[in-house]
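User: These chains co-purify. Model them together.
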Amino acid sequence: MTKQVQQLDRVIIRFAGDSGDGMQLTGDRFTSGTAEFGNDLSTLPNFPAEIRAPAGTLPGVSSFQLHFADHDILTPGDAPNVLVAMNPAALKANLGDLPRGADIIANTDEFTKRNLQKVGYDGSPLEDDSLSEWRVHPVPLTSLTVKALEGFDLSKKDAERSKNMFALGLLSWLYHRPTETTIKFLETKFAKRPDIAKANIAAFQAGWNYGETTESFSVSYEVKPAQLPPGVYRNISGNQALAYGLVAASVKSKLPLFLGSYPITPASDILHELSKHKRFGIRTFQAEDEIAGVGAALGASFGGALGVTTTSGPGVALKAETVGLAVTTELPLIVVDVQRAGPSTGMPTKTEQTDLLMALYGRNGESPLPVVAPATPSDCFDAAVEAARLAVKYRTPVMLLSDGYLANGSEPWRVPSSAELPDISTEFATAPNGEDGTTFLPFKRDPETLARPWAIPGTAGLEHRIGGIEKADGTGNISYDPNNHDKMVRLRQAKIEGIAHDIPALDVDDPDGDARVLVLGWGSTYGPIAAAVRRIRRAGGKVAQAHLRHLNPLPANTGEVLRAYDKVLLPEINLGQLALLLRARFLVDIISYNRVRGLPFKAEELAGVIQDVIDSE
Amino acid sequence: MSEIQNGRGLSLVPKSDVKLGMKDFKSDQEVRWCPGCGDYAILAAVQSFVPELGLRRENMVFVSGIGCSSRFPYYMDTYGFHSIHGRAPAIATGLAASRPDLSVWVITGDGDSLSIGGNHLIHALRRNINLNILLFNNRIYGLTKGQYSPTSEVGKITKSTPMGSLDKPFNPISLAIGAEASFVARTIDSDRKHLHSVLREAAEHKGTSLVEIYQNCNIFNDGAFDQLKDPGQRDAITLRLEHGQPIASATKAVRRGADGGIEVVPRSEVSEEEILVHDVRRPDPSLAFALSRLDEPAFEHVPIGIFRSVDRPSYEELMTEQLDEAIGKGGPGDLDDLLLAGDTWRIG
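Assistant: Joint model of the two components:
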């Protein structure tokens, strides 16, 4: 039977199941196949905070969304075209996001009376007409998998576990994904259990063959590879990119990396990743608490290391006093905040942009520091290198504001070569800098950067003491002199403000140069904003876009850019934190758009908001 | 090297080419403790003792938290870091873990290390990173002008406890032994000779050494340790702990009790064979712990000296070994190889 092949320019698939069903792995493998095939892609995992919520319940649903296309794309997609629902809970939890006409592939074996009752279905929605606005493909995934594995020496329960691979095989057939990488992956993953490897591969192939032969699927789909700039690509998540960026920063600064960290969702993967790279001389220290994590990092910086601490919002709150110590002792330090929904514990696995004001102002005293925010998962790499550049050059703690969406989302990344990356090396002080030629002044500043010398223990003749008490300008001795304090407060501020001349100007994307409305963003909203802007332009609308990567100091031309437009719209996943700052600083009447749902914006949603602002002109 | 510690504590710290003296370790800063404070004696003892170690001055670092004692680093002409309340062990941990060539000292007090910084203290001890922690115990908050501390005796009348404090104090020695410390000692500010010997042992010990120093605060808790200083009472109360020697004074001795614990009895009532011989290297910490309890509940028998000194790998040694092992197996890391590892594809 020859089946029809239909061409599509893009597809959004969501795999959804119980936390124990292996949906993240399934999504991850589909992503690898898609990346290898050459589509552009963007992913959004969404999982519960509970490690194993009760099976079959709504809180236990875990999902993975993948958007892939034959052109360059910016987001994991608003609404899935295809939902793979491994049980009734997965169907119920995701149905609200499905547009009319979308495909639903449902595992009929799990639609038992008991499972239906668990989520409040009276009868099976597969058997009444409640799903009539969608195209439902009922597939007994579990029993087909068990049947396919009959020849294997496996218990029924073990055989059932491979049902995610059966689903992956079916979807791989449906979208013409290459199979070799998944087979190779399974062989490697289960190298020590070849029987399990073989069973999973058999399930995967059975899924593929099922698609090929069954009449439930009469059409398969092709999405051509995307035209991306030439280079070597890999798929990368934000946390992995950030960890690699820190490794790169260590190599390019020629400073040994010291990570002091305490496990916290969604930042722990950076600790895990860096712990693997001891060959780079990286020391990772799992501390007794958040405060010790940053304390150890600062101690290592004092000793000449690139000190880094990684955490999320609750951890930043605990680290505040030590970050203030880093501000006043003027030592390099990178504080990575993978923001999550707050306040307090909030929703640990959900994303938010609500730590901006804490990053900027959440310390006692006048305590300025640079803040850098990556825009996309792969941009976490460059943002980490940039944070290190500023920390080392200006002897300052730098706050790197990622978030849960960037951390766990992934996209193809053109891999840079080490030679392309900036040299961010610095010099330690080696000789006295006093006018008499013998004294060392630990707070005598570089006239251009206002940075102080970094003299590390082990350097003879430069023995000195630093600390949290106010220091006299130059000598660094304890000083309670009122005028000295005023001077030091202003010097520390001026040092950070001066960085504005060392970062790129705010770039505006305004193709025809005649837009009246500017959409501004920062951090992870880049993708949805840019996708929304495309929609507006495609429909003939005019809108300019600019995205802030440096939140402190702001690029020198920021005020000029904001004042050049009639209206400035600023979507944020908070209640208007950047808008508050920009209004105060530039007296521009920013229009805020705020949603704090623990989820990224949707392109369609933002396109509507932008259109409303344009129409109100 | 003494026979009681492992002597590796300073093995990676470069030695000075020239002979340094006490004056080389005095900074140009004016010392600003209250006249009569016990801290002066400890500072003088440290400044006069460190040259004996023969280390390069630039490879010594003093790290402190907050409190009267935490001003200490400003007065030492070495590298120094006066940090924030309670966090000195954490900051020193990062420094010592990344720089095994440094001799790192933590200067802390009873409030700094046992209240706000209690967590860092116990974790530093169990990790056994190469640090020397000098805990100045004056049983009071001095810098905040006289509130009771976590080592103040129950019923202490202070500004914050006008009817007496309610909470049972920590015994720092018991706490340290319970926290898996590999080196635990107690000494007193007024006995420079003893201070010297204990500090030297602490410095040469590889791993975390904790030295409790009884220190008099003559403003807010004057005379807290007078019994240990008054020639009339001193010998009756103090029990000197010396490795390999019987635990006894002229008038009393320590022996195994009938209940399996230890007890202090008049020396005239025991034969020499019955007296416990002090062994700082005993792997099981129970006996050291029992010795640390002898001053409870009254300040009747106070052991002074090294309670415990056992050889255990230090954290930064093990950390370096892991790095060396990883590099030995796979060679030094290459950034391009790392970025290109895993599934990649080429476009164009």
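The two ends of chain A are 58 Å apart (CA to CA).
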